[in-house]
Amino acid sequence: xxxxxxxxxxxxxxxxxxxxxxxxxxxxxxxxxxxxxxxxxxxxxxxxxxxxxxxxxxxxxxxxxxxxxxxxxxxxxxxxxxxxxxxxxxxxxxxxxxxxxxxxxxxxxxxxxxxxxxxxxxxxxxxxxxxxxxxxxxxxxxxxxxxxxxxxxxxxxxxxxxxxxxxxxxxxxxxxxxxxxxxxxxxxxxxxxxxxxxxxxxxxxxxxxxxxxxxxxxxxxxxxxxxxxxxxxxxxxxxxxxxxxxxxxxxxxxxxxxxxxxxxxxxxxxxxxxxxxxxxxxxxxxxxxxxxxxxxxxxxxxxxxxxxxxxxxxxxxxxxxxxxxxxxxxxxxxxxxxxxxxxxxxxxxxxxxxxxxxxxxxxxxxxxxxxxxxxxxxxxxxxxxxxxxxxxxxxxxxxxxxxxxxxxxxxxxxx
Length: 415
Description:
Blueprint: E1 10-11, E2 16-17, H1 21-29, H2 35-47, H3 52-64, H4 68-79, E3 84-86, E4 97-103, H5 113-117, E5 123-129, E6 139-140, E7 144-147, H6 156-166, E8 173-174, H7 177-180, H8 185-192, E9 198-199, E10 204-207, H9 208-215, H10 221-224, E11 232-236, E12 246-248, H11 251-259, E13 265-270, E14 281-289, E15 292-301, H12 317-328, H13 334-337, H14 339-349, E16 353-360, E17 366-372, H15 389-414
Parallel strand pairs: 1-6, 2-3, 4-5, 4-7, 7-8, 9-17
Antiparallel strand pairs: 3-5, 10-13, 11-12, 11-13, 14-15, 14-16, 16-17
Helix pairs in contact: 1-3, 2-3, 3-4, 9-11
């Protein structure tokens, strides 16, 4: 379908109000039973009084309760007749309007931007860009737009449609699609390889038949993925949060792995032992805002396959003290040690907003596992257990809001 958007025209467009991603996700994170709210929203649907915002909230609740197929089916139906949604705003008269450009994907496939703007007083509207629906004419009124869709197969068409009119977008457009499309794991290695002080695992896409051939002894692993030797890391292509992630020590382990996985494509990368002298593994999430790095979190664990929720940070005061020091001293410690690599990462990726998950190897180099524009950056952790996190995350959120204001001001000055 040809893109026919007249990007010079803006107008106040009808949007659907919703409870929103941040509030519902926080409720689930805190252990609130979402089933009564789900049943209430279903009752509105049955009565014929539900709005599109109710439907999108119901879709998210279903996903948070573990029923992704139902959630995605509800989302598809709702987005079929309403694509623009307004998130809760703490200001009655916002001074800035942000338009987030999203794809019709599951709850982890778009930047969780509500967390970043929740208490900023900035109005946030989200426009879902659908493969078979043209961008609206006129576009919704806004001061700054930002692409929040990810570099994934499910978002490819949405990114293409936005990119087709990006050059004519009437307001500043942050995180342009052409840059978002460089973040998937195999592309990221090619983009960042060669940076001084950086160790990034060579990542390749391999198919199920290729892996089966290796497990059967009919092919050499190197023929399917250059520079790789056992042990290696396998994960399904497109997976996140450790789903399907495994360390493979030999060809026989590949066969056992595939017996438990239905996927047809996988990412394969060398295993990097990033444990410290004490045998513990430390993984960091760093967020880049307008080129500057900020500490987001630090996970410490005995296992290599860590992410924050499986590291047991809430149950270990020593780990939390280490994370607190990482955050408090970030600018003149971690960021200073890796300033060259971090600056080069920011320049090569080029996005206004993105995150990296990283570590340090035994040579003191920065190890980058992943870069993403959709990783969760939040302030949901208990202020009693993690008293140091609130101030750090407010620093991150303030920087994000300030970037939005600078983008808008830059446009006004240019005009």
